[in-house]
UniProtKB/TrEMBL annotation:
Pathway linked to the protein: Pyrimidine metabolism; UMP biosynthesis via salvage pathway; UMP from uracil: step 1/1
Name of the protein described by the UniProt record: Uracil phosphoribosyltransferase
Pfam (any one): UPRTase
Cofactor(s), names only, from the UniProt record: Mg(2+)
GO (cellular component) term, any one: cytoplasm
Keywords of this entry: Allosteric enzyme, Glycosyltransferase, GTP-binding, Magnesium, Nucleotide-binding, Transferase
Originating organism: Anaerobranca californiensis DSM 14826
Cofactor binding, per record: Binds 1 Mg(2+) ion per subunit. The magnesium is bound as Mg-PRPP.
Function summary: Catalyzes the conversion of uracil and 5-phospho-alpha-D-ribose 1-diphosphate (PRPP) to UMP and diphosphate.
Phosphoribosyltransferase domain mapped to chain residues: 6-208
Reaction equation(s) it catalyzes: UMP + diphosphate = 5-phospho-alpha-D-ribose 1-diphosphate + uracil
Binding site for uracil: I194, G199, D200, A201
EC numbers on record: 2.4.2.9
Family, per entry: Belongs to the UPRTase family.
Amino acid sequence: MGIVKVLDHPLIQHKLTFIRDKNTGSKEFRELVEEVALLLTYEITRDLPLEDVEIETPVCKAKTKALSGKKIGVIPILRAGLGMVGGILKLIPAAKVGHIGVYRDPETLQPVEYYCKTPTDIAERDLIVVDPMLATGGSANASIKFLKERGAQNIKLMCLIAAPEGIEAVQKVHPDVDIYVAAVDEKLNEHGYIVPGLGDAGDRLFGTK
Ligand code: PRP
Ligand code: URA
């Protein structure tokens, strides 16, 4: 079974409070989502392999460590996942970015795929699927399934807020996927929104209704 890691660092929790606040406008909301994504990236990349390198400091020769060149792919689930990409790329600028368009039908809450463009070598990459919200888990499950069908072997899921129902759904269908979240909230309401959550992540990021 994949792990569920709740990243309760004080900076993340503080920023999440402002993200949740309905009085936070789109500009600040976007900036905060990017910042929290960056902080989550710090933890999700903790097990990246290192190799020994030799360099010369201004003082002497030194044996130090560098990333061993593990290939990473970042896969935002459109639209709201886009809001997290900038923060992730600040820490891992060499990552390739693929996009999966999935929206949740508001009546049935079922995921509908409308776009998919991923790096051709996803089978060799460590993939980080990103979406601020893990509600029923339908969108994440469908996206992970599409990636596996295209050869993906190694997938982690990074979200800001998850409902217990969403975590359970992903663990049931994709037990190989580790989940990293900033918070696990109480429940889903009758419209499939996370309670207390932050509302509609895509609308708040892009100023739509
Ligand atoms: C939101 C969110 C997730 C999905 C979560 O996207 O960004 O992708 O809902 O819900 P689920 O876990 O029940 O599938 P939405 O469908 O609103 O699309 P958008 O990002 O284009 O606004
Ligand atoms: N999608 C969102 O944007 N917010 C929720 O609370 C649930 C799904």
